[in-house]
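anyone seen this seq b4? input:
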Amino acid sequence: MPNDADLIVRTQNVRAKHAASLIVWRIENGETHMLMGMRGAKHRFMPNRLVFPGGRVDPADMKAPCATGISAHTEAMLRKNANAALARGLAAAAARELQEETGLSLGTPPRLDVLHYLARAVTPPGAPIRFNARFFAVAAEHVSGTNGGDGELEGLRFYAISEALSHDLASPTRKVLGRLELWLAMTEAERNAETRMPVLIRDQGWRME
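predicted toks r here
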């Protein structure tokens, strides 16, 4: 039977799995709203937390058919921490998870050129489940379908930023919302001029890569 030291070593050695989340946003009454839902109590990762649709990258995402590739800027930013195949797979995973968890779609096959890469967050070492998560954003006008999904997210709807921030959000989610607000305040030229990407590691605030 493993002793406590063995369990600690195994936990520290858990490799962060690649994952992607997608923030679908729109403006209502002058305030940004995002599509979010609550993870159920039985989830192993962030139970009872308000989150964006998302999940880990599957091998099939690397070669999934897509109507368009990712934009040159998004690819350049993703390639700071991913090869070409993974960069595309991350975007494809974001589109797939959106459809599975919400019933909404970026098209069949999905358009990936409408996705914008916002940030990366890595679950700290020592956690039993770890993700190397990339957060994408897309304007709701590029999304179609009927809100529903597979039931993984409860209370799935558009939340105003002020309402979302009133919830007991996980720290990375709260920080990504702050990053979203800053990104939305930029002009398109300012967004495309970005050359470094904010990364959250060990929950110590953003660093740039």
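The two ends are 42 Å apart (CA to CA). The helical segments are 4-12, 72-78, 84-102, 161-165, 171-184, 188-193. kinda curious what u guys think
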